[in-house]
Sequence to fold (613 residues):
Amino acid sequence: MVIFVPLIVACALVPYAVRRLAPIGWAGFGPVSILHQLGTTVTREKADEPTAGALAVADEPPMAAAGVGPDRRVEGRTTTAPGENGNGKTIIGFSLVFFLFIVLKNAWMSDDAYITFRVVDNFVHGYGLTWNPDERVQAYTHPLWMFLISPIYAVSHEIYFSSLLLSITASLLAAGLFAFYVARSLLLGALGILTLAASKSFVNFSTSGLENPLSHLLIVAFVLVFYRGRVQKRHLFRLALIAGLAALNRVDSLLLYAPALLYAFYKVPGWSSVKAIVLGFSPFLCWEIFSLWYYGFPFPNTAYAKLNTGAGNGQLLKQGVGYFISSFNFDPILFLIIAGSITVILLQKEWKSLPFVIGMALYLFYTVKIGGDFMAGRFLTEPYLIAVILLARSVSLAPLSLGWNWLPALTVIVVAAVLVPNSSWYTVNKDNTVVDIRGVADERAYYFNGIGVNDMGVSGTGILNFQRSGLWPNWPWGALGVQVRQSHQRVVMGYGIGFFGFEAGPHVHIVDAFALADPLLARLPAQPGWRIGHFMRAVPVGYLDTLRSGKNVIRNRNLALYYSKLQSVTRGPLFDLGRLVEIVKFNTGAYNHLLKGVGYVCKVPPGAIDCEV
Fold:
């Protein structure tokens, strides 16, 4: 673990070190300065000012706008607008409490989160950033989220409540910053919070142990900087830094930020701006360099496992469209708000917000292209949050800040939230429809009360089902992991590897049938009959014996040669020159020919171990 400390510290100090060499106006970007800036009373432009000049507000506090009160988007501490009578903050307070109640009531933990938690456990206990300690494989997609959880777990030695605390804190911060500093008025901020709480997907993935809460917080922070004043290089650096952190949290979310970042660059072009962007992305670039050196590859192993499946583009596009249909059936509010925000922005010609509309479009297209996901709504919470933000900032909704005009909007939100099937606002959720015909699941329903395995006598992973005695979370795969750990087996097959892997401990090498944590299987085609996000591979004959004995006895000669080269990358000495050469060869496709023609001569029945490959 010690080897990572200097690198992490160095990457964190890159922007500040370069600033000493070539300052470009980044003074005061530290956390204390940010809090100071947020505490500065400023106002924003008038609602009826031309909107074409996005990011054209002066850095100095302007005079209060007339008509609908001060422009409170992001320019620091908000002031009370006429018609709010100082009660807006109280209303936001109640909205936040209600949001917290809904999130807590529905808090749960997913099996996928525990894949990362096994890495966290290994990292904290000195086994490196590994899933199986005997090989370096990036089995997680969210490095920033993993690094945030690690110190908390190192102190608490408890992962379930530690991750929930971090998730809920990030979710509350995102909602609070949005309401107080991004929304056009306090009342619109309160309505926005209720709109977030009305979405089953947003509520479900405000916990779960996955990275969504941090992604939400970074989106709000980015918007906060984007609209705060005239574009200058220091703003461009901050935008790039937040976008880089978002990419470090989950790289595909960069599509949401890229258009706005390009627009900001367009306002202040030049080499100094390029330098500001590069330095803002320096933590992400440092991670990519580290990942290439440490793991041997720039992207998570999960990317190779899910994108290198052999499935045709047509199949994935069809599945991606099906994912949207399934998510609409699960949570129609997602699509209504996203479509509504795009419509309002275009009709009102709010061109300053157009980059975010383009970012949402790119992200949604990408989601369809890769086939979506198996968790209903999970990939849609970020564009949903952006849509809520755009509506709360829209000039066309400014009259809701006055008088009682906000009551119809509140009524619509409440009715929509209550009418959604199996709403998160219900006291008890009893929907037993877990996985639909497209393989898309209400993942929370599967795990929260143990609906997916209700014949096995488990209570589920929901916080309301917490048990002090026995294994927690109470899930059969975790119990199976305990059994494997106690049996002292060295190499085993795994299918649901999250809870199982975490409880099995670091001394058991788990071969993941879905290839998320296995470097060789991730580069083999998936078996026919796959479910999205679950691309099962057959294990090459001799692979398990190779792992057990340490001697390469894989029957297929090409695969045996390929694995011997791959092994030097994932298991060889980090600073070995030969290993670095192999890394270059792998990433330039020098060994791809060894995988040509590799396929299955049989369809493996569930539970089988070896198949001719």
Observations:
- The radius of gyration is 25 Å.
- Confidence is low (pLDDT under 50) at residues 1-10, 12-83, 602-611.
- DSSP finds 25 helices and four strands in the chain.
